[in-house]
Amino acid sequence: MSDSARKIGFVSLGCPKALVDSERILTQLRSEGYDIVGDYPDADLVVVNTCGFIDQAKAESLEAIGEALQENGKVIVTGCLGAQAEQIRQVHPQVLDVTGPQAYEAVVNAVHRHLPQPARAHDPFVDLLPPQGIRLTPKHYAYLKISEGCNHRCSFCIIPSMRGDLQSRPAGEVLEEAERLVRAGVKELLVISQDTSAYGVDLRYKLDFWNGQPVKTRLYELCEALGSFGVWVRLHYVYPYPHVDDIMPLMQSGRILPYLDIPFQHASPRLLKLMKRPAHAEDTLARIQRWRELVPQLTLRSTFIVGFPGETEEDFQILLDWLEQAQLDRVGCFIYSPVEGAAANELPDPVAAEIQQERYERFMEKAQDISRRRLAAKVGQSMRVLIDEIDLAEGVALARSAGDAPEIDGQVFIEGAGAGALQKGAWADVRITDASDYDLYAELQA
Ligand code: SF4
């Protein structure tokens, strides 16, 4: 650390996609010689990367800006909420600058304006940047953003108006980033975007190059190439289109993880239409069944919205029945709440808050029941897990299996002989000894 370097504090809020944005901004600032510090008082200026997806996230973002202003005083705001600059300025007129989502250059320029580096601060030692960039996730896993924006117009979502239409990154660029990450010790790549199944559509699946080899900018080819790194590759935000069937053989052969995160959001065709969901006309149960025939070990995760305007008891029952049949492994659920600027706000027949709550509870009860049964069926199985943390006091290692994405899914608790001596970020082979509603318990395999 150089004494003359300017010091930036950074607060990163929101989803994994926002985290990737934060990593890019930090990488850029660090490469220019700024120091990144962990405390408000140590910082010369604080950047807050906000989330504006739902009203609660907005409130949290505004609160974080307030805290940074109080603790430090010099604050630049960026990220999704940055698209609504007037709102931020209304609550916090003291902020120095507001830039929108994906505006890496704009936020870095704002930092230059408000905190220029002294002329002599440039120092080759300060400029040394780890080649994989700065990551906010633990060293052994990393999010890999393959595109920005979205071509859909789901009625409850304002992401397309904030982030624009789909813009895929050429396959060669994504693969280069993945290669750098793996070389730096990453064992698990989490592929993210707003719509992973649409990857490359905007570029007409353009042929790109990676290590001198031609590679198409398309989901299948990308997964095939990512699978060659010998690390876990986990797909998030995939929609149930027919072409997703094509990647099943890559899961079956172990090239990528047998895991799919598909935000179904609902199952009633009428509601899906009101939500304007992609692939709303697909027979999702038939598709899930086919996938499971091809890849029996497949883990399916999804999120749902209950209490959407116009949702009747019949629609909700369709959802519950669908869930019982689909037997999804991992499920999250949100109670619908309006987002400023979303088309769904114009829909009639809002669902009363008590009914929303009651449906949420009935839904989660069913999801929990399914989760418990599916995890219980794993007791006695042997599997490879990735160690996230060691609890030395308890002599327990916290790990994840192929079926658990970090932060959103369950964990595998490794207990007994040798567990405390495991290393964070290492693989371990375990035997499952017990299961609870959402987690597994295991012992190291002899
Ligand atoms: S698919 Fe729908 S919910 Fe997802 S980002 Fe696009 S518009 Fe929003």
Topology:
Layout: E1 7-12, H1 16-31, E2 35-37, E3 45-50, H2 55-71, E4 75-79, H3 85-91, E5 97-98, H4 104-114, E6 141-145, E7 147-148, H5 159-163, E8 167-168, H6 171-183, E9 188-192, E10 207-210, E11 213-216, H7 219-226, E12 232-235, H8 248-252, E13 259-261, H9 269-275, H10 284-294, E14 299-306, H11 313-326, E15 330-335, H12 353-376, E16 382-391, E17 396-400, E18 412-415, E19 427-435, E20 440-444
Parallel strand pairs: 1-2, 1-3, 3-4, 4-5, 6-9, 9-12, 13-14, 14-15, 18-20
Antiparallel strand pairs: 7-8, 10-11, 16-17, 16-19, 17-18, 19-20
Helix pairs in contact: 1-4, 11-12
The structure holds iron/sulfur cluster.
What's the quick description here?
The chain has 446 residues and is α/β, with parallel strands linked by helices. Helices cover 31% and strands 22% of the residues. Helix 2 (55-71) links the parallel strand 3 (45-50) and strand 4.
Your description of this structure?
With 446 residues, the chain is of the alpha/beta class. Helices cover 31% and strands 22% of the residues. The protein contains 12 helices and 20 strands. The protein has helices spanning 16-31, 55-71, 85-91, 104-114, 159-163, 171-183, 219-226, 248-252, 269-275, 284-294, 313-326, 353-376; strands at 7-12, 35-37, 45-50, 75-79, 97-98, 141-145, 147-148, 167-168, 188-192, 207-210, 213-216, 232-235, 259-261, 299-306, 330-335, 382-391, 396-400, 412-415, 427-435, 440-444. The strands form 6 sheets. A 5-stranded parallel sheet has the order 2-1-3-4-5, sandwiched between helices. It has a 5-stranded mixed barrel with strand order 16-17-18-20-19. β1, α1 and β2 (35-37) form a beta-alpha-beta unit. α1 packs across α4 (104-114) and α11 runs parallel beside α12. The radius of gyration is 23 Å and the shape is globular. The two termini are 45 Å apart. The model is unreliable at 120-127 (pLDDT under 50). The structure holds iron/sulfur cluster. Iron/sulfur cluster is lined by residues 150, 152-154, 157, 159-160, 194-195, 278. Residues 150, 152-154, 157, 159-160, 194-195, 278 line the site of iron/sulfur cluster (SF4).
